[in-house]
Amino acid sequence: MRKKSLWMWPLSVALVASLAACGGDDETGGDEDTGDNGEETEENGDEGSENGSEDGNLAADQTLIFARGGDSVSLDYASVTDGESSRVTKQIYESLLEFDADSFEIGPGLAHDWDVADDGLTYTFYLEEGVTFHDGTDFNADAVKLNFERWADPEHEFAFADEGYNYSVYGTQFGGFAGDDGHVIDEINVINDHEVEFVLNEQLGSFIQNMGMSYFAITSPAAFEEYGSAINENPVGTGPFKFVSWSRDDQIVLEKNEDYWQEGYPKLDSVIFQVIPDNSARLTALRSGEIDIMDGLNPDDVDAIEGEDGMTVFERATNNIGYLGFNMEKEPFDDVLVRQALNHAVDKEALIETLFAGLAEPAKNIIPPDYLGYNDNVDEYEYDPERAMELLEEAGYADGLEFDLWTMPVARPYMPDPQRAAEVLQENFNEVGVTANIHTEEWATYLERTEQGEQDLFMLGWSGTNGDPDYFYGNLLHGSAIPGGNRTFYRSDEADDLFNRGKVSIDDDERDEIYQEAAQVVHEDAPMIPLVHSIPVLAGSERVQNYVPHPSTSESLHEVELTE
Fold it and tell me: Where is there biased composition of kind Acidic residues (predicted)?
């Protein structure tokens, strides 16, 4: 049965064109949320006022301290895939379109309106006027064109390929790079200062959704000239907050953009993203009032926090996959029997009971259950140690095997306590005669080394950023995502063909069938062990008003304010 969540946006051209027409009737453009979710946000804002966010009850110090388990890898959003980077860059940069506050329904952003040609190949965006970058230069169509060409062309002067910059997500979302056969963006034409046209050579089912992704936000062209490849430490966007400083593995400080184009925003004067690696230490800091919001709340602590005065719990919608990935370029993980055996060795229900306090469900697809293309008919690898040992014996490992289990050093939305999870998995493997030695690295190093293929079996996950299945399949399993998000080094002509067909189709029913077939192929090849789809939880002080956690794990804080 075809599934679609309330926050999955239909991707047919007809509906996109209809939405564009609605966008044209919204005179406020990006100043307000759109659709049903926007109405909910307004209601929440009113409720927040009743609870003490009237001007008279606002705190004198409007500095929000957001604590997280790990540091950002880079502040050049398009060249990295980690959520700790996008959490910060979401405040600094903006995209042409924006998602609703708590869903993937799309609406105006830096573009207040857009048109889609009947053939689905030409998209015209009408840009907000009077918007400036943090350096005082004008946002315009030329800036849009330059940014997209920078990501598309490795030879572009601002691509910084020689300095190691890699825009893998651009490649997977738009079918490759300039000159590649599958690259769908044929031309970008500047019509005038506030009108830009994208001409595709092939239809792309997720094109409009892509335009709302934080990966494809717009950087000041003048900043590229000034900072060059150091742009990753000197971000300059149009967003509600401006970059101030970055002390590695400690804190990133942002300040209010006094010239922000959305009148009345942001409410906060500054935001500090504070690194506190240990979950318990973050919770202690929250309770003592040292911080205002913390990510990576242990699910076991949810009941206690909900019962404490002055504290609140925030839940994100399920929109992720936590998994163990096999490096298929290394023995014995090049053998499908070994991969299937280790799938049978993992007790997912025990993992969920131990770590997630019911705030997760076992995974058998890599896309979340409410996504278009989810295949509920896949026969999951049941927890069956005897079957695991049979398959290991068939593969020639009757006496067992030994490998390193690479384990994340930081809590993530899909894995709140990686070390504890690794210990549970280690016990599972030990029961079938397999020795898994837990290995970890500093977060940025972990991501770099797993992308390079140094790992054996590794723990990681993925959260959706545009509500589309292509974002998961294209980045995690497509052959073109090597090097990049495909850290399993899974290569399958059959799977790639299905991924490619799903990418370019604009018919939802057809895409649903294609991705269901792809899910079955991936299941049989078993490049990974899908572990869980979680409900990520955060905790905060009740002083924090109008904070709405987004499914993507990166939300704008422009409406947030603090009460006494």
Answer: 24-53
